Hints:
Layout: E1 3-11, E2 16-22, E3 29-30, H1 47-50, E4 55-65, E5 71-79, E6 85-89, E7 91-92, E8 101-107, E9 113-120, E10 127-134, E11 139-145, E12 152-153, H2 162-166, E13 170-177, E14 196-199, E15 205-209, E16 227-228, E17 234-237
Parallel strand pairs: 4-7
Antiparallel strand pairs: 1-2, 1-4, 3-9, 4-8, 5-6, 5-9, 10-11, 10-13, 12-17, 13-16, 14-15, 14-17
Amino acid sequence: MATHIAVLVGFSDGSFTFLRDDVTAETLTEIQTDASGILNLTANVSVGVANQGKVATQAMAKVQTDGATTGSLMYCAFYDAQGSVLCPIQGGGANCTKLPNVIKPVRMQSGVVVKAEWQVQSAAIQHASLAVYTAGGKCDIFSVLAVDGVATEMKNAQGAGWGESLAGQTVIGAYATYSATNGLADTGVADGIDAFYVESSSGQLLGMFPPEKGQGHVPTPWIYQTIRVNQNDVLTVTANI
Length: 241
């Protein structure tokens, strides 16, 4: 079965664009303008090129699998030409509905793209993903394939962990996704932790982010926390099945 991700983007001038592409599971993919011919859009163009000078103020991503609703959003975001996260985009599965405001406006220009990643909901161990934004405007996304019963560090696309990427920043919000059918810690209180967690180098618990499946009827919600980040702080997931 094929799966596509659709991204709806609203701009400050009241106009919209619609991005949609077929995607492979667990592969970060650029989502370009829709090529169906149904809408009056130039097909297969990046969002920045197609909408030069406009400012994105709303956006949502939807995962749709042909004849099924098992596709789960891991994360979606606007990226710059260097591959850094400009602003995460909320979203979910096929039944997700709403058009949220983005956490900060993003000006469209050449090099600005939308990328997204998804996975199939199942009872197996899944990828854990956390999209964050800070008081200073810096954003990043951390992800890792969880390991049954093992504390596993989550890192960004460049291989940097929480502390290395965000040192000196103050995180004020994040959304967390983990699409296992039965949740993050489903074999009793002796195994697994029911949220992604941030610890200091001395093991002090600094923050926790309970994940959503990326399939809800509303976009994966922001979790509002205030966490000052130090260089050696670590973001971890400990799952079990």
